[in-house]
Amino acid sequence: MNAQKERNCLRIAFYGKGGIGKSTVAANISAALAMQGLKILHIGCDPKADSARCLVGRKIPTVLQQLHTKQDGISLQDIVFLGFSGVNCIEAGGPEAGIGCAGRGIITMMEELKYLELWDEVWDAVVYDVLGDVVCGGFSVPMREGYADTIYIVTSSEFMSIYAANNIMKAISRSQGTRPVTLGGLIHNCRNGESSRAAVEQFAILTGTRVVADVPFSREIALSELEGKTVLEKFPDSQAACFFKDLAGVITENQGYRRVKALDDDELEKFSHYMLDLELRKA
Q: Per-residue pLDDT for 240 more than 90?
């Protein structure tokens, strides 16, 4: 990975609670960066293996699937697929439901990518889309093992989403003990049009970070996903497409070390009462 640092490769990871929209953000950011003429590697680290779907237009074979199928070994051609605007896409994959450890799939993928010398290639940016269950060590590999330098947490104002974001911050804090992992900030996904910016903003203040952007509630984003496309491909002139282009610019420039301060259990409980108060005021 040192070679990637020498080439000033932008290495970012999007984390968040399952279903919060991090794959939507990650795929559109990869597309936006590629449209700038950059060479992008997009890596899905979720056992659902659907991160690259909107870039490639379909689900692609995963590293774990290919390793299982091809007993004599795999090549990069077996696991790297070109998506919209030339984005190179890889999916880690995972075991069948109820069998095995999904986090182990990420560890296996990283070992295989190193063996196949993928990191010897020149990349302008590597984008990781990671499930937010960092209680499992496998899901913390991108930040813990030095594959990603900057972490962005996608969240809504729902308490369980905030709870997951706080857990991710704890993992970042532990990683910062051994290497300078940066928390780039929170990305607030207004996925139902009712998510409260005030709650996410207050959480950011309490944890010493910031809200980088508010993903708009957009019909274009939803329609694009149903068609297996990024909004930049399906609706290139839409406000949603402009949003992701702007966010890609912010992420490119937003590189700097910040110490993370996650909330403890008592502070998180107190924050839940603050969120309840906000909801009662809206009623």
A: yes
Active-site residue, selected from the candidate residues 17, 229, 234, 245: 17
Catalytic: which of 22, 229, 234, 245?
22
pLDDT at residue 1, rounded to an integer: 46
Question: Is 277 buried (19+), middle (13-18) or exposed (0-12) by CB count in 10 A?
Answer: exposed
For 30, the token pair is 């990869």
Distance CA 278, CA 283 (A): 9
Q: Residue 76: which residues within 8 A CB-CB, separation 6 or more?
A: 116, 118
Mean predicted confidence (pLDDT) in 184-199: 85
CB-CB neighbours of 223 under 10 Å:
13
**Cβ neighbours of residue 75 closer than 8 Å, sequence gap 6 or more:** 116
Residues comprising the chain, all counted: 283
The ranges assigned to domains in the chain are 2-282
Confidence (pLDDT) at 133: 64
**Contact call for residues 66 and 79 (beta carbons, < 8 A):** yes
Q: How confident is the model over 78-91, as pLDDT tens digits? A: 999 999 999 999 99
pLDDT-derived band at 4 (thresholds 50, 70, 90) equals very low
* Contact of 267 with 192, CB cutoff 8 Å: no
Point out the catalytic residue in the list 46, 50, 129, 133. 133
Interatomic CA distance for residues 67 and 111, integer angstroms? 12
Fold of 2-282: Rossmann fold (3.40.50)
Q: Are 29 and 152 within 8 A, CB to CB?
A: no
Average pLDDT (233-244) is 97
Active site residue 133: yes
Active site residue 17: yes
What is the C-alpha to C-alpha distance for residues 11 and 126, in angstroms, rounded to an integer?
Answer: 5
Residues 123-135, mean pLDDT to the nearest whole number = 84
Entry pTM? 0.91
48 given a catalytic annotation: yes
